[in-house]
């Protein structure tokens, strides 16, 4: 029975959480919902917040496009807005350090991890700091 897209995404996020925890990040929230969408993972290391966009694909699709290439200009803009919404809702200090990272996960057709890459500060927009 083939693995579903929902299962692919869930497995990818689990792998991303494991990677982050092994690198010393604390997980603040998962699947944080706001009116304009969802942030996959919010993590913290030291005093800095990290907003993680997890992109997962099957190895069979890796030659066509990499998961991180699916974060286009529109998606970057939406993520920026989602992060700002989180900061306002949670009353985070406006001078707090934060960034948006991408975690690219590739699975085989059974859902086993083939490759994982944490692309730090992958989405950078000039913020009025």
From TrEMBL:
Q: Which GO terms describe its molecular function?
A: nucleic acid binding
Give the protein family: Belongs to the UPF0102 family.
Q: What is the name attached to this protein's record?
A: UPF0102 protein HYT40_00900
Superkingdom per UniProt:
Bacteria
Species source reads: Candidatus Sungiibacteriota bacterium
Enumerate the InterPro entries for this protein.
Restrct_endonuc-II-like (IPR011335), tRNA_endonuc-like_dom_sf (IPR011856), UPF0102_YraN-like (IPR003509)
